Amino acid sequence: MEYKFTIKKLWKHILTICEHKKNVARYCFKFGIFWRGVLHDIHKFSWTELYESSKYYTGTCSPIPIAKKENGVSMAWMHHKNHPLGKHHYEYWQDNFDTGRKSLIMPFVYNLEALCDYLGACKTYGNLNDDMDVYKSELKFWKEIGRDRSTAMHEVNKMFIDYCLEELVKNGSLTKSLSKKIYDNCLNNYNKI
């Protein structure tokens, strides 16, 4: 397939970004991190990200893996995950590359925003309307693919996503205070190992 930038694809990609931002913001507001919801992925509107993502836009999935497959790297992804507003990506939290790489524990608020990002992407690309369907679908994806694929994510962050998704499926809700307790328990349990 030949990929090329067009105004039509640019417009469709912008609409997808807006839908994703709306969905993520909704979860951020629901879980008590209002400003993270407002600022989430605002840098997707930079030309670096817009151009490449529009070129590889399909409407059914993120254009980033397609760009990586075609070029060996995605400049949009490099910009996105390393941007100061990209701290909700576990890839941002890596250090000591010269000695083998060290995964760092994401601070609570970015970990909670990552959860909202996962849920927002599931809702956007899965065309799901009901929150419980989103929670169940994301938990299924996380357990079958996402958790194992996230090899550079710190175990504390993985445990946090595990427990929060399980809580959402079990009770249908999650508050900022409950998610903070979950985060603190994950830290404490990890420190006991």
Describe the structure in your own words.
Helix 6 crosses helix 7 (131-149). Helix content is 66%, strand content 2%. The protein starts with 6 loop residues before the first helix and ends with a helix. The relative contact order is 0.12. Strand 1 and strand 2 form a beta hairpin. The chain has a two-stranded antiparallel sheet. It has helices at residues 7-30, 34-39, 47-55, 64-71, 75-82, 108-126, 131-149, 155-171, 176-192; strands spanning 94-95, 102-103. It has nine helices and two strands, in the order αααααββαααα. The model has no long low-confidence stretch (mean pLDDT 95). The protein is mostly helical and 193 residues long.
Beta-strand fraction estimate: under 5%
Distance from first to last alpha carbon: 49 Å
Helix content: 55-70%
Largest beta sheet, briefly?
A: 2 strands, antiparallel
The topology string of helices and strands comes to HHHHHEEHHHH
Low-confidence stretches: none
- Please count the beta strands (DSSP E, at least 2 residues each): 2
* Global morphology: globular
Lateral strand order in the biggest sheet? 1-2
Averaged pLDDT: 95
Q: Quickly give the structural class.
A: mainly alpha
**Integer-rounded radius of gyration:** 17 Å
Number of helices: 9
